[in-house]
Amino acid sequence: MAVDGQLVARTVGELRAALAEAGDLLAGLQRVVDATRTVVGVDGAGLTLAHEDGPPRWVATTDPAMELLEQIQQDFGEGPCLAAYAEDRVVAVEDLRRAPRWDRIAVVVGQLQVRGMVSVPVRLAGQPVGTLNAYTTSPRAWSAQEIDALGALAAVTADLVRTAVELANREVEVARLREALVSRVWIEQAKGVLAGTRGISPDAAFQQLRVRARSSRRKLADLAQEVVQDAQRERIAAVAVHDARVRAAEARAQAAEQALQAAQAGLSRRTATLDRAQDTADVREQAAEERDDVADERHRSADQREQAADARDDVADERDDVADERHRSADQREQAADARDRAANDSA
Q1: Buried (b) or exposed (e) across 246-278, using 16+ Cβ within 10 A?
Q2: pTM value > 0.70
Q3: Cα atoms found within 13 Å of the Cα of residue 208, Cβ hemisphere only
Q4: Which among 39, 60, 158, 342 is least surrounded, fewest beta carbons within 10 Å?
């Protein structure tokens, strides 16, 4: 298959331009395999890199089929990728199904329609560190242009890995400097702790640290860190005790306040009860007074009735007296008439 040389050159240039910005190695490697599938015009691409504990393993693929293809080779311990890495050469397979050397791999990946495959070594300092791989779903006789394009992309991959290694080495150096600085900080802090707690000079505190480190066969920075952390734990413990005391005092004050509130609430309830009792007593007293008033009114009415009865009795007595007087007058008149009658009879 014909390869567009200008596309290859432009893609390689873009990938190299991105090396300075390669903060994420895996993302950069993924861009390489994605570009490989586009530039070479294959169905899938992948990348393997050597590991400390053995042969190369896949680190980036364009699709699950490529991932499975590389994983099977790792599991079987054989395949075009491993051969290209071990023999430091390009391994091109026109049709896996017709390559007896890779018949086990062909059986496994047959259902994935993986047919053509090519692996190109990725070299760093003249030694293979992995392979750039591609596959097609139909047989392919790999052309020199395709191999050259894969070689150019493999070189970009090597540059990307080298840049990442250099960055990692610089990071290691920075980490070491940072560790030395941190160690110095621990030592200075430990000197301050000993000087403050034991009343000695910083130089004397440093000498004590050195003697203790030598006698215990420990690093001075480790011992200093332990001294500082012990002091920090003691301060934290003291603060915790103080906080516990403060919390206990606050709890007691809160309990006292709650007790006072409860007492006030009880007093309020008792006062309310007494008020209700007083109101009830007042109502009862008022009712008693009203009953007394009613009784007095009844007594006055009875007295008035008695007085009226006495008055009627007096009137009746007066009438009786008048009647008696009338009766006496009538008797007297009758007696006078009788007397006159007797006198007339006597005269006759």
Answers
A1: eeeeeeeeeeeeeeeeeeeeeeeeeeeeeeeee
A2: no
A3: 17
A4: 342
Q: What phi and psi values does residue 78 have, to the nearest 5 degrees?
A: -155, 160
Let me know: does 59 contact 26? Beta carbons within 8 Å: yes
Angle between helices 64-76 and 80-87 (to 10 degrees): 60
Element spanning 116, H or E? strand 116-124
CA atoms within 13 A on the CB side of 308: 6
What amino acid occupies position 243?
Answer: D
Residues 6+ away with beta carbon under 8 Å from 83? 91, 119
| pLDDT attached to residue 308 | 81
CB count within 10 Å of CB 72 equals: 18
| Residues forming beta bridges with residue 91, ordered by sequence position | 119
Residue 17's φ and ψ, nearest 5 degrees, are -65, -25
∠241-196-236 over CA atoms, to 5°? 20
Given a contact cutoff of 8 angstroms between Cβ atoms, the answer to whether 56 and 130 are in contact is: yes
Distance of CA 239 to the CA centre of its chain: 26
User: Kindly report the CA angle at 336 between 334 and 342, in degrees rounded to 5?
Assistant: 100
Say what the pLDDT of residue 177 is. 47
Reduce the DSSP state of residue 243 to 3 states and report it: helix
Contacts for 174 with CB less than 8 Å, ≥ 6 apart? none
Where the chain has pLDDT below 70, the residues are: 1-2, 19-23, 53, 168-182, 185
- pLDDT recorded at residue 50: 87
- pLDDT one-digit tens code per residue, 103-132: 888 888 777 788 999 999 999 888 999 999
Alpha-carbon gap, residue 251 to 144, rounded angstroms? 86
Concatenating the DSSP letter of every residue in 295-335 gives: HHHHHHHHHHHHHHHHHHHHHHHHHHHHHHHHHHHHHHHHH
**Which residues are within 8 A (CB) of 16 and not within 5 positions of it... i.e. 6 or more apart?**
156, 159
> What is the model's pLDDT at position 42?
93
Do 333 and 325 touch, CB atoms closer than 8 A?
Answer: no
Cα gap 347→31, rounded to integer Å:
189
- Tokens at residue 208, please? 């004590």
